[in-house]
Structures are given as structure tokens and as C-alpha cells.
Design goal:
- 43% of the residues lie in helices and 24% in strands.
- It is α+β, with helices and mostly antiparallel strands and 331 residues long.
- Among the domains are: 106 residues, Immunoglobulin-like (Sandwich); 121 residues, Four Helix Bundle (Hemerythrin (Met), subunit A) (Up-down Bundle), CATH 1.20.120.
- Strands 1-3-6-5 form a four-stranded antiparallel beta sheet, with no helix packed on it. A three-stranded mixed beta sheet has the order 2-10-7, with no helix packed on it. Strands 4-8-9 form a three-stranded antiparallel beta sheet, with no helix packed on it.
- β8 and β9 form a beta hairpin.
Amino acid sequence: MTKSRKKAGILTRASRFLWLWLLLGGAYLPMLAQPNVGAALSATKMLIGDQVTLTITASYKPPVEVQSIGFDALNREPRLEVLRAERFEREGENGLRIAEVEIKLTCFDSGYYFIPPIPIAYTLNGRQDTVRTNQLGLEVGTIPVGPETTQIQPIKGIIEEPVNFRDLLPYLIGAALVLIVAGGLVFYFWQRKKPEPPPVPPRKVPAHLLAQEQLDALEQQKLWQQGEVKQYHSQLTHILRQYLERRYGIKALEQTTEEILQSLEPVSREDAFDNSHLRELLRTVDLVKFAKAAPPASFHAEAMEKVRGFVAQTKDEALEIEVPEKDELET
């Protein structure tokens, strides 16, 4: 009888342990499914003008797929300059995949800087989500000054030299130039005393037509044909971001790519337009701008046509913008 009770007690404890293991495993399963991300600096201290390497790593297993690593979040600290960025993909053990981005940074202002968490977008069974890396700190210092450089030196006496014509020549030339300029101004205002014309009033242009004018001006510059690929895509995305800001009232010029796409989710459902091409264009152009990627020549013209198509698809005839008469392409 005693043995039966002991056996029953052992089975009861084993059953409770099994249920507890299943509950804990189910609670941690979503956490194990997301990518394991991290960020690290090659050095936490550097001098002005030196360089450090920021490494962003995301390791994952299918069905998880990493879509993008949003290192454009570094633009929030303009004093940290991105020199280059390179992305690598490699295979680990037991089917593990590793996505890694190495970013070379420099800075010319001393101080303590916080490198913000980098958003990493991924999909799991068709559901999109974002995980962020850890925040880092970087201290930028100046070149130390030795005590010998601050020591007060004795005052030296003034060495006088005789004045000659060469010493007076700069003053004579300066006086002659002043007289010539003064005489020219007097003659100009004496000859012409016409009132200045009133300033040209700003013209009102629909937002989509203004974007098309800017795209035409950019296309006429033929930047990417001359090897200016980064400048071409910088101006192209600036025109697109400016149009999004005017059209939908979002702060597209200040937001990252992922933040723009999140801001457009409500209006895309309301206006029934597909922003998948816009998502692909913005992410690819980010790689060209920050990582110095080299897409095929056909991509540059296709990017221009995609922006034109997006503007034509989302235009609002009633939305007008005041612009100066001589409107220049903003960069």
C-alpha cells in the first residue's frame, strides 16, 4: 500500500513538471522565433577625425526572414558622419543565417554621442514585425594639450625696419580701388535712379505638377549618366519625400524609411494605393546612398519612372503649393 502511494506521488509530480515545461516553452517560443540582433563598436572612445566601425548583426532561422536593417536611423545625429556601409550574408551552423552590416563612422565634434537602437524589419509566416538593437555610446575627444605649450614666454622686443615704397604700395593700391569703386557708385546712381520693381508674387502650383517639374529638372541634369549616382538618388528621394510631406502632411523629410512607410499605412488604405513599389524603391535607394551599392544602369531610369508613377497615382488637383517664380530643385 505504501509503495502504491509513493508511485502515485511520483507520477503526480512528473505530470506537474511536464505541464510546467510545456507552459514555459509556449511562452518563450515567440521570443525564440524572432531574430537575435546586436550592435557593437570597434572602440567606445576616439579622437576627432578618427574612424570607428559599427557592426550590426542579425542571426535567424527559417521561417524568419530579415527584410531590412534600418541603419539610416543614424541620420538623427548629423554630427556622426557615415563614410561607408557594407552588408554581408553568410550561413552559420545548423541552418542558422547571419546578416551583418559594417558601418564606418567618423566625427569632427568632440562630445559624447548616443548611437540609437537600429530597427531591423523581419517577417515570420507572412507577419511583419520589427526588433531593435541595443543603444551604444561613443566618446569623441580632442587632442590633449601638453603643459609646455601653455607656458608663458617672455615678451620679445619690437624690431623696427625703415619704411620704403614697397611698404606703402598696398595702401596706395587700396586707396585707388576705394576711389574707383566710390566714383563708379556715384556715377551709377546719378545716371540711373529708377525704382526697383516689385517682387514677383509666388505662383500657386498643384503639388503633383511641382513634383513633376522638379523630376524633369533632375532628369535634364543627367547625373547618373555622368557617374554621380549618389547625388542623383539623393535628389530623387528628396523630391519624393517632399511630395509625400506636402501631399499627406507627414514629416517625410525628417523620418526614416521605415517611419515613412508606417505613416503611410492609414492613407494607403484610405486612398487604395499599393505602396509596395514605394517600399522597394526607398529601401534600395538607401543602400545606394549609404552603402554605395552599384545597381544596374536600368535601375536609375526605373526609379525615376516609379516616382513619376506614384505622383500620378496619388495626385490631388485641389492641393496647391506656393512657390517662387524661379523655383530651383532643392537638394
